[in-house]
Amino acid sequence: MNNEILKIREQFPILNRMVYGKPFAYLDNAATTQKPTKVVKRVSDYYEWENSNVHRGAHFLSQEATVAFEKARTSVSQFINSSNSSEIIFTKGTTESINLVANSYGNKFLKKDDEILITRMEHHSNIVPWQMLCSRTGAKLKVSPIDFSGEMIMREFEKLLNTKTKIVAITHVSNSLGTINPIKEVIEKAHDAGAVVLIDGAQAVSNLKVDVQELDCDFYCFSGHKMYAPMGIGALYGKENLLDKMDPWQGGGEMIAQVTFDKTTYNEIPFKFEAGTPNVSGALGFEAAIHFLSNIGYDFIVNHKDDLLNYGHNRLAEIAGLKFHGTAKRKTGLISFNIEGVHPYDAAVLLDKLGVAIRTGHLCAQPTVDFYNVPGFIRASFGVYNTREEIDLLCDAIEKVKEILS
Fold it and tell me: Global pTM?
């Protein structure tokens, strides 16, 4: 273990825990990452020293909390290089962000027989909201296929694009396959067809540097808890001209300009999409996580994740009877596989007892798993604190699982 990784690991006390009397390897980072001490401390400091509602109070604590909250919004804006902070809406996470767009944009601009185009590799959060929108509006959901390596079939995607396509919604990095999609090309082709594009960046932001202006996407959403921030906080980026045209999707405090019993007028962006008391502590923890990632640097993060991915594939390929799912030329962050003759759930239970935390099942991507005609995947996913030694522990544990269950 090199000194840089050792320094990173020292910021995560939970990695020193014993599980079933053994040191454990946490390889479930695509589900949620662990939180560094500086993130936990930032949340704690807010509740101990700054706790107050934002944007509303005339007193000192409220003003202090408001300044900190809006500074966090600016940090998120700079993190993904949006043109200004008003294009950043705080949400509970990727799921809520996609639902916001489906309701606020979709309800207003989609009509019967319009089309929404997604891919076969999407997370349920990028499927179900569009199905619900189709039920409300009469629009149609189209699904672009993938091949068995886990890559988009671009010629099929292009065939599905037409003048009826109003929204293209696609994952940047697949949560089940690790595929890095060619989203810049997708965005360009979608725009040529007249569609707006939403990118699900939940798995991307902890693995890749994201620049929404360079990508030219219309919406980009991600979750804090998958990038070392607290749970229950995330962000939706939207182009200012689109957000201005969209109606609020929730009503209440904060999102109003003027309320009478006859009529309500709405606040400016981003506030018209942030009804109610926001997750202030989460936003401040979000900002601390951004600083954590920025201090490490994305050159290091990308190189380290690539090393873990390559080492993991090579080590796992040495194990007889192991089948990979997702072998795209460009991928990051995770490896999905199955063990011949072993149900993935049984493997997960035993791996846990052997001190290795992985994810199993349909991974909230059931259509993807069904495509491979298996009952579920075993997924090992990597954080910036993971090591080759932990991959060795995984491989040793798989050999023991095979001995017990095969």
Answer: 0.96
